[in-house]
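Entry for the shared binder. Reason: the reviewer on the internal report wants the predicted structure included alongside the sequence.
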Amino acid sequence: MTTSTPALWSAPLLRFNLLPSHSLHATRAALWLPGHDAPALWLQRPAVQRHWHRRWSQLLLARLQQDAEPVRDLAHPATPLALASPALLYGCARHAGLVLLGKHLRQRIARAEVRAAQQAVGRAALDWVSREGAALHPGLNDPLPWVAEGLAEGADRLGAGLLAQAWSDAPAPLRRRADWKLPLDAESPASREASGMTPVQARQLCLQTLLFLEPEWLSYFPAIH
């Protein structure tokens, strides 16, 4: 067992193990959890939230069956990604997805195209992809199927698949809980393998993205990064 975080049962790890409903992706919650998608005022009360998240998490853990064992060994290098907050994981997926679309973005020369890309995903994200992206991945040769519905949407889908690939070689208790943070189709072979990267390569790209977005979080795992 490793104690690479300040405390083994720190809040992120506790929620990851015992309260997965807190980070369950909305596409899964709508299918799996009764009442989760109802924007009722009663759900905004803290005491009620705690009650329902305990109930929902019990239902989710029952789905894991033999894989419901808590994650205690934090040695797997995908752990910083798996334990990241939903907001941080979303940012990681967006930026990593943009890296995979880097070749497509670098071919945008017209000012109107550049301006449209900046409006879609933000200037800071595009600047990072321009500086760091090519060194992390050359970019997909055929990005059109992914950007057909929009640049941001394509980046999000690609990035989610890359994250699923990044922890696809992790033990089941870690991998399955982490998958729940992503959209329903993220762990499908088509999404996971779109980058052409192995789990190790995908993980390295995602960790580099995480280092850019939130170096303090990654610093909690000195043995990994």
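Summary line for the report: The longest helix spans residues 46-64.
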